[in-house]
Amino acid sequence: MVKTAQDGPDSSGARSTSSVEDQLVREGDVAGDYLERLLDVLDYDGDIDLDVEAGRAIVSIDGGDDLDKLVGDRGAVLESLQELTRLAVQQSLGNRSRLMLDIAGWRRARRDELTELGTRTAKEVLDSGEAVRLRPMTPFERKVVHDAVAGIKGVASESEGEEPRRQVVVSRSA
User: Whole-model pTM?
Assistant: First the structure.
């Protein structure tokens, strides 16, 4: 028998895991509907894929010729669309969403670039002993760099400054 949220918790704690997963799936569904309407209004083609990964809903749009316009310069339009989509989810479901939106694989490719940047910078800091301050980045970009630096022994990273000029500083760890 499939357990639903109305059935109440069981002794294994499966209800809480299932209800969180169900909530994330609902967020993805609402986001997908919102983005599908947006694509229709713009007369853009694109396939919407919904997933749940690392405790957040992931919504991807791929396959359309005009999708690069929805990414914008350095992902600026993508970031704005992600915030609008989060607001649509919040309005519909009543809770703040942490969903992540990717369009035309831009965020996936950017993650690879930033992982390489973080790793390369950490190795440079190890070699030179000098701290390195990277250019201002979005929260998504900073997290990817911090994760990459965390994988290298002997170095650490921290974010400094105020949005939108917040930067990652990589230095030798104490």
Answer: 0.79
Does residue 99 sit in helix, strand or coil?
coil
Give the strands of the sheet with 47-53, arranged side by side. 47-53, 56-62, 100-103
Question: Tokens at residue 97, please?
Answer: 């969403």
Strand arrangement, sheet containing 155-160: 132-133, 167-172, 155-160
Query: CB neighbours of 3 closer than 8 A, spacing ≥ 6?
Result: 10, 14, 15, 18
Run means of pLDDT, 10 residues per run, the chain, 174 residues = 35 61 95 97 96 94 92 93 97 95 96 98 97 95 97 97 95 91
Rounded Cα gap, residues 4 and 15, in angstroms: 8
Tokens of 95: 């809770």
Maximum alpha-carbon separation in the chain = 61
